[in-house]
Amino acid sequence: MPLYLDPDALHTFRDLNQGPGAMLDLIGAMAFRAAGTAQRLGLFEVVAAGPMSAAALAGKLGVPEQPLTVLLDALTGFGYLERTGEQYAAGPAASPWLDRNAGGGFAPALAVWHDLIGELWTGLEHAVRTGRPREPYYPWLERRPGTLRDFQTMLAGLAWMLAPAVVKAAPPVRGSLLDIGGGHAIYSLAFCRAAADLTATVVDLPGALEQGRAHVADAGLADRVRLVPGDLADPIEGRHDAVLLFNVVHGLDPSANADLFERVFAALRPGGVVLVLEPFADPPAGTGGHDAAFLGGFSLNLAATQGGRLYAFDEVAGWASAAGLTGLERLALDAPSTDELLVARREAQ
Ligand SMILES: C[S@@+](CC[C@H](N)C(=O)[O-])C[C@H]1O[C@@H](n2cnc3c(N)ncnc32)[C@H](O)[C@@H]1O
């Protein structure tokens, strides 16, 4: 959003006894909702074809011209569109990031966060007052195939980016890998590509596995990566040499995490390893600016919608140690991310 506070504006806000930071946040909230609405209408794909009048856009989108024009003008102010005379074109905040036809990288994230904040964050106050989400995220998501698809696409995009660094930082993994909450299966596929003798089992909710099925088929690794619908609270089947808990711990409350680590320990062969991938509540030194602000908001989202939160490395290490795991390590990734790896081992007998 092309907004900043110049010194004159700052003085005006102060003279009017108005909070400049909160005012910018208000405009940001309006811009976010307007962009999410435009996305749902399919505007960003249509304007990508070139400048168009409001009448032409209304015809293409199948909505009345007058209210659409109000939206178009607001989006122009927010930087999502540019207006020359009567013609609207994609602006710097939209192009190419939000055009799905051009592989716009932020389109799935905008769709997911728009639905999350528009629907589930209406329960934020309830969650803060009671310590419990009013409506839990994952069952809500399984009932929304479009949002679920966008959610897994968003995670898969991050996983494509991080997987090489994760495999490089992790100890070598051989034998049998269990990927709990592994949905899109990108991490299991990356570990399997790195070790020819590895087979993987990805356990996740049924809808979440749909993309995993497609990725496994595309990779031609259906004989080595098995997708098993299930709940992570269920007993863990089989014995494994490695278990991935990637971005799963932050969705659970402390007692569910303690229980999960105990079951993971029992499912590990002696000498096996647990890998936890998380942004920790105590991120690497130097994490600041928008990264730190996003982590705070992300943790609030977890509390509001899942009954989890971001945990400090030592909290996660505590559940691992209490379950009997040893040899704990904290490993940074060679990637532009606040995610880090926790490695814990079941001693070889
Ligand atoms: C934040 S995503 C992480 C996905 C993947 N591990 C990654 O790091 O990109 C959490 C995953 O846990 C799955 N999950 C959440 N609750 C679950 C449950 N009760 N049983 C099984 N899977 C669950 C979700 O469907 C989702 O795929």
How would you concisely characterize the structure shown here?
This protein has 349 residues and is of the alpha/beta class. It has helices at residues 7-15, 20-41, 43-47, 54-61, 65-78, 107-119, 124-130, 137-142, 145-169, 186-194, 209-219, 254-267, 289-305, 313-322; strands at 52-53, 81-84, 87-90, 176-180, 199-204, 225-229, 240-246, 268-279, 326-332, 339-345. The protein has 14 helices and ten strands.
List the helices and strands and how they pair.
Layout: H1 7-15, H2 20-41, H3 43-47, E1 52-53, H4 54-61, H5 65-78, E2 81-84, E3 87-90, H6 107-119, H7 124-130, H8 137-142, H9 145-169, E4 176-180, H10 186-194, E5 199-204, H11 209-219, E6 225-229, E7 240-246, H12 254-267, E8 268-279, H13 289-305, H14 313-322, E9 326-332, E10 339-345
Parallel strand pairs: 4-5, 4-7, 5-6, 7-8
Antiparallel strand pairs: 1-3, 2-3, 8-10, 9-10
Commentary on this structure:
The protein is globular and about 75 Å long. It has a 7-stranded mixed β-sheet with strand order 6-5-4-7-8-10-9, sandwiched between helices. Strands 1-3-2 form a 3-stranded antiparallel β-sheet. The chain folds into 2 domains: 7-104, Orthogonal Bundle (Arc Repressor Mutant, subunit A); 157-288 and 306-345, Rossmann fold. The model has no long low-confidence stretch (mean pLDDT 95). 49% of the residues lie in helices and 17% in strands. It is of the alpha/beta class and 349 residues long. It has helices at residues 7-15, 20-41, 43-47, 54-61, 65-78, 107-119, 124-130, 137-142, 145-169, 186-194, 209-219, 254-267, 289-305, 313-322, and strands spanning 52-53, 81-84, 87-90, 176-180, 199-204, 225-229, 240-246, 268-279, 326-332, 339-345. The protein binds S-adenosylmethionine (SAM).
